[in-house]
Write a structure and sequence with these properties.
By secondary structure, the protein is an alpha+beta fold. It has three domains: 1-78, SH3 type barrels, CATH 2.30.30; 101-276, no CATH class; 286-493, Cathepsin B, Chain A (Alpha-Beta Complex), CATH 3.90.70.10. Helices cover 29% and strands 26% of the residues. The strands form three sheets. It has an eight-stranded antiparallel sheet, with helices on both faces. Helix 9 packs across helix 10 (356-369). It is globular.
Length: 494
């Protein structure tokens, strides 16, 4: 028998299933093996071969028929005879197993948990309880996010960002960011307004450290008072992503408290099995990502070639365009990412600033540690350079000066495009306007976006800002783009 060609990572299963059903599983290359399905967590399926070998692979690595079977599969949970099994079929094990959801929700100060495991709960229903708004929706993943007001509390203190991620409609993780150097010195507004930055005070470092120390102690003390003393563990991947964590468990949920020194204090709520594996995600095989990306390229009757299904991340009122854009590109290519961790890797300044090249150098190292390539080039905006990536379904990260005039031009063009009936006339209109346009770069509006499409006939490119759904596809001419370009381009690939 040929080997089952996939990138495998051993995980501790969330359920010890009984009467496991042996069946034939086939991967994307057509190679089959006999195995039993043990668990499905966070878009990852754990299977056990006839010889006892156990592996965890992305659900998308299987044939479509197997994917359908996996998504309909339900575990047969078992629990120790001396321990009751709570509603929802999740085995009650561990020191906090007998605490009910109401007790843990009272601890959190929010209606996080229900009668069933988060990992079996629709992301939309959990997000509704937490007052989160839909941030992004693609064919197989989604996210909800809020930058809550000052009176919003989680575990006794204010989170500056609350995000919920879902896979195949089910909650996969929750990310909370408390005191951090981005949001503590954020801009006066979102979208284009994030360029109107307040000048960080001279004592910024002391202010951030004091706030982080206070949040870290309060969170640890609050959770420990009900769930007991934490375990100290290492979690994450690579030098920039691996961190010391305080961990508490409740049923099949792990609550992880981390401090990225000088950067942020954060909590992740993840499957206990994922935490047991140290937070190391399974690398989706290149052949699967390549096929998926190529299917996302849409060619329209007017000549537009545009990549669809790219997750949106709203960076909020701070200068996190680089980490937010990198998170979008990584998640699109099947790599788990969080903009706050990426900001830490890129050594952002207070409020999110710092040179684009320095940020991307740090982010690039993190991306490579996750098993993806990170390539760059420098030069003029050229359709051939853009097209060769877009046609493969790979977006391009582009550094530019996102000036007020540039944004006004792009927004107006995008609106006008919606009612164009004759594209030859549109091309002539663009040529006339571009000839008279005097877009100029400046030193105050450095920005990074994703180039997601182009139209060779009209000489335009489509780009996407990390400012929310209404900014997911905007258009500008190639010539105008070159006027404000910083001449640097980056690609997360495989």
């Amino acid at each position: 028998m040929k080997p089952f060609v996939c990138a495998f990572l051993l995980l501790v299963p969330a359920y010890a299933a009984t009467a496991q059903e042996l069946r034939s599983f086939t991967n994307a290359q057509g190679v089959s093996i006999k195995a039993a399905l043990i668990s499905v967590i966070n878009g990852q399926a754990t299977i056990r071969r006839e010889d006892g070998g156990q592996f965890t692979v992305p659900v998308t690595a299987f044939s479509q028929a197997d994917q359908d079977y996996i998504r309909q599969w339900s575990p047969a949970p078992t629990a120790p005879a001396t321990v009751s099994t709570p509603l929802g079929g999740t085995p009650a094990v561990g020191p906090n197993a007998n605490l009910d959801a109401a007790t843990v929700n009272a601890l959190a100060g929010q209606e996080v948990f229900g009668d069933v495991s988060l990992w079996e709960s629709p992301g939309e229903s959990v997000a509704g309880r937490l007052k989160l708004r839909r941030e992004s929706q693609t064919s197989n993943q989604g996210s909800y996010r809020a930058y809550p007001p000052a009176d919003y509390r989680f575990f006794g203190t204010r989170p500056y960002s609350v995000a919920l991620y879902e896979d195949e409609g089910k909650t996969s993780s929750i990310s909370l960011v408390f005191a951090n150097k981005g949001d503590l010195f954020s801009a006066s507004g979102s979208g284009e307004d994030h360029f109107d930055k307040n000048t960080p005070p001279a004592e910024a470092e002391k202010i951030v450290k004091k706030a982080m120390d206070a949040d870290l102690k309060l969170l640890s003390d609050t959770i420990s008072a009900k769930l007991g003393p934490p375990r100290k563990e290492r979690f994450g991947e690579g030098k920039t992503g691996r961190m010391n964590m305080q961990r508490w468990d409740w049923r099949d949920h792990a609550i992880l408290l981390a401090e990225a020194e000088g950067e942020y204090v954060g909590i992740q709520i993840v499957p206990a099995a994922f935490a047991d594996a140290g937070g190391k995600s399974t690398r989706v095989p290149d052949v699967v990502i390549r096929e998926r990306a190529s299917k996302n390229v849409e060619t329209r009757p007017n000549g537009d070639v545009v990549i669809q299904d790219i997750p949106m991340v709203d960076q909020g009122p701070k200068g996190y365009c680089v980490p937010a854009t990198a998170e979008r590109a990584m998640r699109y290519l099947g790599v788990a990412a969080d903009m706050y961790i990426l900001a830490n890797a890129g050594e952002t300044g207070y409020g999110g600033g710092t040179s684009v090249s320095k940020l991307l150098a740090g982010v690039g190292r993190h991306i490579k540690a996750k098993g993806r390539s990170f390539d760059t080039w420098e030069g003029k905006m050229a359709v051939r350079d853009i097209a060769k990536h877009i046609e493969k379904g790979i977006p391009v990260m582009w550094a530019l000066s996102s000036t007020k005039l540039f944004n006004e031009t792009a927004s107006r063009r995008t609106d006008e495009r919606k009612s164009v009936a004759e594209w030859t006339a549109w091309k002539k209109k663009l040529e006339a306007e571009t000839a008279d346009n005097v877009l100029m770069p400046d030193s105050e509006s450095g920005h990074v976006v994703l180039i997601i499409g182009y139209n060779k006939e009209t000489g335009e490119i489509a780009f996407s800002d990390s400012w929310g759904e209404r900014y997911k596809e905007r258009w500008i001419t190639m010539k105008e783009a070159d006027l404000v370009s910083q001449k640097y381009f980056y690609v997360v690939g495989f």
